[in-house]
Design brief:
The complex is a heterodimer. Helix content of chain A is about 0%, strand content about 55%. By secondary structure, chain A is mostly beta strands. Chain B is globular and about 40 Å long. Classes of the chains: A mainly beta, B mainly beta.
Chain lengths: ~120, ~110
């Protein structure tokens, strides 16, 4: 079974600054996917970024990028130029390849962006 | 409407009541999921349906009964729930399960069991 751990229950950052959210996972699989989902207050959870484990290059999506360290089983999310709209719960998630699209989530990190 | 919708958004029920949660997706997907999001616990996958067939039951108590009449609709029937079942119930959909595709989530139903 896989486990996903987010060790930072809450974080805050000043608007326009950069913040990094941590995620570690435990698996014996070699083929898998990792995700970061964002859940704004009272709004739907949306996908922020996705990483395929077989790709060495770190995924980026505009202001969002990841630092994927496969050997260390680490998958951190960096948010650059933080905006007030980035305030949300952020969930790291693991999906084993070809296993029915089932996601295993971490406990989440609540991020507050301060003006 | 677009995306994944859930009704009702809020539900309060007694332990002896029977109620149902509804999820509808307008994305042309074939896989649908129920998750439970409790305070201070990671999201827990409850059920997976792929082309209307249940493919996963994650050891969910029988007081939760899912139904998937077609690929666009998913229900969660609730009966004789316990206060510890109070949580946010999230529905999600994706292209067919097993294809490593992104899941799209609904806004959730906030359930309170008295």
């Amino acid at each position: 079974a896989q486990t996903v751990t987010q060790s930072q229950p809450e974080m805050s950052v000043q608007e326009a600054e950069t913040v990094t959210l941590s995620c570690t996972y435990d698996t014996s699989e070699s083929n898998y996917y990792l995700f970061w989902y964002k859940q704004p207050p009272s709004r739907q959870m949306i996908l922020v970024i996705r990483q395929e484990a077989y790709k060495q290059q770190n995924a980026t999506e505009n202001r969002f990028s990841v630092n994927f360290q496969k050997a260390a089983k680490s998958f951190s999310l960096k948010i650059s130029d933080s905006q007030l709209g980035d305030t949300a719960m952020y969930f790291c998630a693991f999906m084993k390849r070809d296993a029915g699209n089932m996601l295993t989530f971490g406990g989440g990190t609540r991020l507050m962006v301060k003006p | 409407e677009t995306g994944v919708t859930q009704t009702p958004r809020h539900l309060v029920m007694g332990m002896t009541n029977k109620k149902s949660l509804k999820c509808e997706q307008h994305l042309g997907h074939n896989a649908m999921y129920w998750y439970k999001q409790s305070a201070k616990k990671p999201l827990e996958l409850m059920f997976v349906y792929n082309f209307k067939e249940q493919t996963e039951n994650n050891s969910v108590p029988s007081r939760f009964s899912p139904e998937c009449p077609n690929s666009s609709h998913l229900f969660l029937h609730l009966h004789t729930l316990q206060p510890e079942d109070s949580a946010l119930y999230l529905c999600a959909s994706s292209l067919a399960a097993g294809t490593n595709n992104e899941q799209f989530f609904g806004p959730g139903t906030r359930l309170t069991v008295l």
